[in-house]
Amino acid sequence: MESIDRREHVLTKERWFGPGDRRLICDGRVVAPVVLADSYRLRRKGLLGTAGVTGAIWLTPCASVHMVGMRYPIDVAVVDADGMVLKRATLRPWTGLTWPARGARATVEAAAGSMSEWGIEVGSRLSVG
Fold first, then answer.
1. d(Cα 37, Cα 75) in Å, to the nearest integer?
2. Cα–Cα distance between 62 and 75 in angstroms, integer?
3. Which of 26, 31, 64, 120 could in theory staple to 115 by disulfide, Cβ–Cβ 3.0 to 4.6 A?
4. Rg over CA atoms, the chain
């Protein structure tokens, strides 16, 4: 019985990331809350150690990301300085990564499936409001 209680306690302590206090805007439409990770400390931590994400995180500057240490899949969009999406992908835990793209300036991360739901595609314009 004690091990079950301990397991339940751990599950209730799982930490979700977000929602942020800003808004992710895609082609002029607000699509989700977003956290702007523009400091070294916030970018380095990112979504590591979380059980899920509500909304998105905008990592800048950040040309690529990896999934080492992550426990759940995420969607990523790599954007240039103007916010145009250069790449979009769904990454798997531990093995996923994006390679740097020419002109990449930032990476947006969200729960797997979110980018499709929000209508974010290569060529979309993203911004933080």
1. 17
2. 15
3. 120
4. 15
Q: Judge whether 115 and 74 are in contact, CB under 8 Å.
A: no
Using CA of residue 59, residue 89, residue 24, residue 106, what is the dihedral sign? positive
* Per-residue model confidence as pLDDT tens digits over 49-67: 899 999 999 999 999 999 9
**pTM of the entire predicted model:** 0.86
Long-range contacts of 7-15 (CB under 8 A, 24+ apart): 14/51, 14/52, 15/49, 15/50, 15/51
| C-alpha span between 80 and 65 (Å, rounded) | 15
Length of the chain in residues, anyone? 129
